[in-house]
Write a structure and sequence with these properties.
The chain is an alpha/beta fold and 306 residues long. 42% of the residues lie in helices and 22% in strands. Strand 1, helix 1 and strand 2 form a beta-alpha-beta unit. The N and C termini lie far apart (54 Å).
Length: 306
């Protein structure tokens, strides 16, 4: 049975939010309400909804700041945002500082509101390339981000989970999915705490983040430190003591499988040899092979300028 669409309403008008909540509940939506704008971002980081309705008729500056912050964050940028407004003057309204997906004028026409919600969610399905497991942008967005950053002083970090397939086979897909989600959150938080950047999920156990060159190694070290710490909770004490568990390799042969770790290939984008995204992926593949030669988690930075 599919999960109901989760909608969050942010408004200081409790009567308005109560009315909207009741009407949306009648349509089968799961609705939460926030009256305090200051705590809205904390809620988003803890449990992001599928769609946001934000009241721009009161405290417009703060509401616009929330919209802009969400749009600037790669993890939340795809969430549809509907603004509630008294009126919109297209010649004076600053769409760049408040990049809404759509708006509905007050007083509300609920038929219009329902239609705009439906259209926003339908539009999202058509263009949404985010990975459904991690909610991070997928290959289309990753390709676009890499191409736009060619020649800039930023680094593309390719993150790969070592020994993931035998773990997935031995412990089951649900545990494997948890490892994928865990890795995504570790990477996302490391990038956010470093000052921001791009995060993407190529697929399976492969991820990408793009950060300034001077932050790349610190981000990689943070990812490794947190991953190596949290991954220990996935194994019992005996397995942790041994450092491996019985599993099956890609040839179907029984062997001792090491505990999960991560390899990260760091490719600075301001090197002359990088003229297209395919070359970036090629260099990263070479670096990941080097990183995987060592036991445990490791990152390798491409130092070759030519």
């Amino acid at each position: 049975m599919p999960q109901p669409t989760r909608i969050t309403i942010v408004s200081s008008d409790s009567q308005l939010t109560s009315h909207i909540q009741l009407r949306l509940h009648s349509k089968g939506y799961q609705v939460s309400c926030m009256q305090c704008f200051d705590s809205a971002m904390g809620m988003f980081y803890a449990d992001p909804p599928d769609l946001l309705i934000i009241d721009l008729s009161t405290d417009t500056e703060c509401s616009s700041k929330i919209v802009f912050t969400l749009r600037s964050d790669s993890y939340f940028s795809a969430i549809p945002i509907l603004g509630l407004v008294v009126s919109i003057d297209n010649d004076t309204f600053n769409w760049n500082s408040c990049p809404l997906d759509d708006f509905v004028t007050l007083p509300l026409n609920y038929s219009e509101l329902f239609s705009r919600i439906t259209l926003s969610l339908s539009r999202l399905k058509r263009i949404f390339d985010n990975n459904p497991l991690t909610r991070l942008p997928g290959n289309t967005s990753i390709q676009r981000a890499i191409e736009s950053d060619l020649g800039l002083p930023v680094s593309v970090c390719y993150v790969d989970i070592n020994h993931f397939k035998p773990y997935n086979d031995e412990y089951g897909f649900s545990h494997g999915d948890e490892v994928i989600r865990m890795t995504a959150r570790i990477m996302f938080n490391a990038v956010r705490d470093s000052g921001g950047g791009f995060c993407g999920h190529i697929g399976g156990d492969d991820f990408v983040c793009i950060v300034p060159n001077d932050q790349a190694e610190a981000v990689c070290q943070t990812i490794i430190t947190h991953f190596d710490l949290i991954v220990l909770d996935l194994f019992d004490e005996e397995t942790k003591r041994r450092g491996h568990y019985p599993g099956t390799n890609r040839k179907g042969e029984k062997e001792d499988v090491p505990l999960l770790s991560v390899s990260i290939a760091v490719v600075p984008m301001d090197m002359p040899k990088l003229r297209h995204a395919a070359k970036v992926a090629e260099v990263a593949a070479e670096l990941k092979k080097v990183a995987k030669e060592s036991n445990g988690s490791k990152y390798v930075v491409d130092q070759r300028r030519n």
